[in-house]
Amino acid sequence: MDAGIIVLVVIAAFLFIWMAVGIKIIRPYQKGVVEQLGRYKSTYDPGLKFVIPIIQSVTKVDMRERVVDVPPQEVITKDNVTVTVDAVIYYEPTDPQRLIYNVANFVMAITKLAQTNLRNVIGDMTLDSALTSRDTVNISLREVLDDATDKWGVRVVRVEIQRIDPPGDVMDAMHEQMKAERTRRAVVTEADGIKQAEITRAEGEKQSKILEAEGIKQESILRAQGEAEAIQAVADAERYRQDTVAQGEAEAIRSVYQAIHDGDPTPDLIAIKYLDALGTVADGQATKIFLPAEMSSTMGSLGAIAELFTGEEPKKKK
């Protein structure tokens, strides 16, 4: 009885160990390649899987993106300049079956392939093109590597050139060239600045002269307008004076005429009119002056008018 229990316990332990060995856990970033008796059977996705121990085996493949560092190497450019180039390659497996069965050491294989193609790509370019066209080099190298690694079940995501180092003497020459170019740009920039300053100054002087001429023009116009208005004002005043004088003379003539018509002319008024007439006659143009016969009364009136203006009393006749 005891021997039977022992046998059962041994069988149960063996079955437990056998089942434990057959249980496989495949993580989310992995895939499992199942082989049965040395031959490919299937590919397991992530999860809990069971295989038959001894008969079946599982090889787990990491499907995450990985990076391979390509060691620095010397490459001769198209213009016979030796440069040191290194790069990094980013890849991700796409088919775990081909990655296991089609290449033995993928990292070494892709590293050597990248070095060879770096020589080919850089060798077809001049030094200046290689230094300024890294994106072109990256794209060309990625396409070549992607085509070559497709049969290995791998996709090359991108290739990045880390550095391209020319020889020391070439670097010195490039530094001198860059320094000369920067000096040239500085001189050109300074010359452009002086040119722009002179143009701006000339434009300012031009605008100043234009504004000064406009000011003189406006001043002349205003002065002419003022003189014209002054002349017009004088003419209006003279016209007004003449109109006033004419009106006064007309009023005086009407008064004289009315006095004569009434038969009682005022001696003073007649005397004033005599004086006005004499002033007109004796303007320097006439050679002869005729005086009226009746001048005594008129002279008397003139004396009276003179007394009014001078304030002196008339002298009596002796």
Overall structural domain count: 4
Give me the Rg, rounded: 65 Å
Oligomer: single chain
The N- to C-terminal Cα distance equals: 207 Å
Major sheet strand order: 3-2-5
Sketch the topology as an H/E string, one letter per element.
HEEEEEEEHHHHEHHH
Remind me, CATH topology of the largest domain?
Tetrahydropterin Synthase, Chain A
Can you tell me the CATH class of the largest domain?
Alpha Beta
Q: How much strand? A: 15-25%
Shape: elongated
Q: Give average pLDDT, whole number.
A: 80
Q: What is the number of strand segments?
A: 8
Helix content: 55-70%
Main beta sheet strand tally, sense and closure: 3 strands, antiparallel
The low-confidence parts are 308-318
